[in-house]
Amino acid sequence: MATEILMPALSPTMEEGTLAKWLVKEGDEVSSGDILAEIETDKATMEFEAVDEGTIGKILIDAGTEAVKVNTPIAVLLEEGESADDIDTASKAPASDEGSNGGDGGGATLEDTDTAKPMSTQPAAAVPEPETPEDPEIPEGTEMKTQTVREALRDAMAEEMRGDDAVFVMGEEVAEYEGAYKVTQGLLDEFGSKRVIDTPITEHGFAGLATGAAMGKLRPVVEFMTFNFAMQAIDQIINTAAKTRYMSGGQMNVPVVFRGPNGAAARVAAQHSQDYAAWYAQIPGLHVAMPYSAADAKGLLKTAIRGDTPVVFLENELLYGQSFEVPDMDDYTVPFGKARIWQKGDDVTIVSFGIGMKYALEAAEVLAGEGISAEVIDLRTLRPMDTKTVIESVKKTNRCVTVEEGWPTPSIGSWISSVLMQQAFDYLDAPVINCTGKDVPMPYAANLEKLALVTTDEVVEAAKTVTYK
Amino acid sequence: MATAKSAKKSNTSKEELLEYYREMLLIRRFEEKAGQLYGMGLIGGFCHLYIGQEAVVVGLEAAAEDGDKRVTSYRDHGHMLACGMDPKGVMAELTGREGGYSKGKGGSMHMFSTEKDFYGGHGIVGAQVPIGAGLAFADKYLGNDRVTFTYFGDGAANQGQVAETYNMAELWDLPVVFVIENNQYAMGTAVKRSTKSKSLWERGAAYGIEGEEVDGMDVLAVKAAGEKAIKHCRAGKGPYILEMKTYRYRGHSMSDPAKYRTREEVQKMRDEKDPIEHVRDLLLQGKHATEDDLKAVDKEIKGIVNEAADFARESPEPSVDELWTHIYA
C-alpha cells in the first residue's frame, strides 16, 4: 500500500513551514533514517528523515514551496513490489493553503489525522469542594501536660517512629548533635544510627535522596536546619515530591516530610530570616503546615508523617521554647485543613498562623481592654486551607485583619482577602487589612529589624481601623 | 582501583543475541514511529528520542534481576521498553491519552511503572540522580538485596546534585549503579566544551567510587560491565559508575536541528558503530540466524509498533475529571 509522507511538525509550535529542498527524487529507494528533505520552520532549517523503507513514487510538493501546512501530503512512498501506478486517488495533493488535515484514506498507515487535535471544546471539570475535617475528640478527663513546642515535635517523631519502622529522620546534625535546635533530642539514643541519620551539608542531594527513599516505600522526615537552606533543595521539593503523584497518574506516592524552622529568628539578617509560607502554599501536590502551639505542632506532625502526601512543615525557632498545654494521650493527631478558633469574638476576625498568632493574640488582649471583641483564628495548615471557618467568622464580625510575618506581595493574607471578597463580599463592612512583614530584606541592625517585622501595635491599629474606632 | 575498559565479554547464547536484537529493534522502530507521530502533531511538547543509544539499556537490563530498579531522565522511552513496559501504554502517554501509563498526565518525560520498578521519567536534568540513590537507600534500609540503575547524561554529570549524591552514596555504601550515558552532546554542547575532565567516570574517584568506561554501542560489553557493577553493589561494596560511550543519531529533541555536528559525523557512527547492525552481523556471521529469520523479527516488531501507534491514537483523551485527580494522596 502506498504511503503518503506528510509535512511534519518539527517543533511544539510549528503550524506550517517551507519545503526548502528535496534530497531525494522520484524513483529513489530510501530506508529508515535517510534524509528526505530540508524543511524550514520558524526557528531553524531541519532535516526530515524517512521512517519507512521504500521507493519515492511521487513528489507532491515542489522544493521552494512556502507555507506548507503541517500534515499536508508532500510525497508518496511505495513499498516493495508497488509501482507508480499504484498511486491512486489517495494521494491527491491538496494545495498548500488548504486544510492541514489532508489525507483521505490510505488504510494501514497514519494519514488520517482525525484524532490529532485535542478536543478543546470539552467543559472544564468543576473544582472539587474540599471537605473540612473535624478535630479528634479529646476524651473527658484527659490530662493536659505543659510542653514546649520543641518537646512536642520530638515526641511526635518518636511516637511515629515507634509505630512504623519505615519512618526515619535525616538532616544536618540531627543525630549525634541532637539537632541544631535540639528538636531531635534523644532520638539517636532510642532509634540508633540506622534511623536517625546525620547527613553531609548537601541539602539538594539529601532532599532528593529522601524523595527517592519515599518512592521506595520509606517515610522520611527531613530536617532542614532552617528553611532558608531548603532553597538549595526547592527543585526536589516542588518538581519531584509535589508533582510525582500527579505525573504518574496516581501510581506513586511520595510520603516525605520536610520540616524545620522558618521565618525570622533574631538578628541573623536577610539570608536567615524569611517566611516561606506563601511560597510553599502555592504548590498543588504539597501539604503545608505552620503550627503555633505545642499541641498543634505535635498533632499536625504526626498526621504529616502518617499521610502519603508530601508535607512542608514550617516551624519557628522563637516558638521552640514556648510552653503550651498538650493533651496527654496515646495518639493525639490534628487533621490538615481545619483551623482552630483560639478565642470567640464579635467585632473583628483576626486570622493568622505560626508565630503570627503571637501578635494576633496579644492584639486581641489589648483590644479587649478597649472594648473591642476579636475572634482569633489560627489557620494551622495553609494547604489545604480552611477558608470556610474564616468566612463563617467574617459573616458574624463583618471585619477581617490578617497577620503574618511574610512579605506582602503576594501573601497568605492577600489570598484570604481575595477569598473574602469573592465569597463574603456582602458581609464586609470594611476592607480587609493585611498586617505583614515589611517589603524589605531583613536588616541586621536591631532598630531596623524591629521595624521590618509585623508588630502587635500594627494589628491593634488595623483592628481599630476596620471597626472604625 | 578502577579498570579502564571492560575487556571481557559475557558468554552469550544464540537466544540471548536474538533477544538483544529484538529489543534494540523494538526501541528503534518505536522511536521512529514516535518521531512520525510527532511530525503529525499527535505528540506534543518535548520529545527526546533514544535512537542510537539502544545497546545501553538493553545490555543493562540483560544484566538486571527482578526487583532491581531503574530511574532516568526525560530521554526515557528506551528504558521503559527495555524493562518490559507495554509499548501501547508508553505510546499512548506520548499522545496524552487515557491509556497512557500516567493516564495522559505525564507525557514523554514523566512516566512511571511501579510494576516494572521504573521510577521515571524526570524532566529536570540531574534530579533523578539523588532519587536513584534514595531508592537504593530504601532497599538497603529494608534489607532487600536489590540494585538501582540511575541513568543520566554527560550534561547532567556537571550538576551539583550529582556530586552531592556520589558523596552520600559512597558514604552510606548504597547499592546504586550510576550509568552515565555519554552521548557526547548536552543538547548542543559537546563534552569537551563543558569540562576539562578527561573522562566523566573518573570523577567518582574523588569520592572513592569505582567505575569504568564502556563501549555503549556494544550490547555485550554493556551487559558484561553491568554484571560486574551489579556484583559490586550486591556484595555491599557501595556504588559503581559506568560511563557508556554512546551516540544519539537524532537531535536533542524533535525541534533540534543539530547544527552543532556534521552530517558526516552522524553518518560515520551509523555506518561503523550502529548497535543493532553489530548484533545483526554477529547473528548472521555466527550462523545463528538467517536473513529470513531476522526479517521475521523485523516484521514482528513492526506489528508491535503499529499496534502501539494505533492504540495511542484510538485511546480517548483523559476524562476532564482527571484534571483534579491524583494531586493528594
How does the SSE layout of this entry go?
The complex is a heterodimer of chains A (469) and B (329).
Chain A: E1 3-6, E2 16-22, E3 29-30, E4 35-40, E5 45-49, E6 54-59, E7 65-69, E8 73-78, E9 144-148, H1 149-163, E10 167-171, H2 187-191, E11 196-198, H3 203-215, E12 219-223, H4 234-241, H5 244-247, E13 257-261, H6 277-281, E14 287-289, H7 294-306, E15 311-315, E16 323-327, E17 340-343, E18 348-352, H8 356-369, E19 374-378, E20 381-383, H9 387-397, E21 400-403, H10 412-423, E22 433-435, H11 446-452, H12 456-466
Parallel strand pairs in A: 10-11, 10-12, 12-13, 13-15, 14-15, 18-19, 18-21, 21-22
Antiparallel strand pairs in A: 1-8, 2-4, 2-7, 3-6, 4-5, 6-8, 9-16, 14-20, 17-19
Helix pairs in contact in A: 1-7, 3-4, 8-12, 9-10
Chain B: H1 14-39, H2 54-63, E1 69-72, H3 77-82, H4 87-94, E2 118-121, H5 128-142, E3 148-153, H6 160-171, E4 176-182, E5 185-186, E6 189-190, E7 210-215, H7 219-234, E8 240-245, H8 263-273, H9 275-285, H10 291-314
Parallel strand pairs in B: 1-2, 1-3, 3-4, 4-8, 7-8
Antiparallel strand pairs in B: 5-6
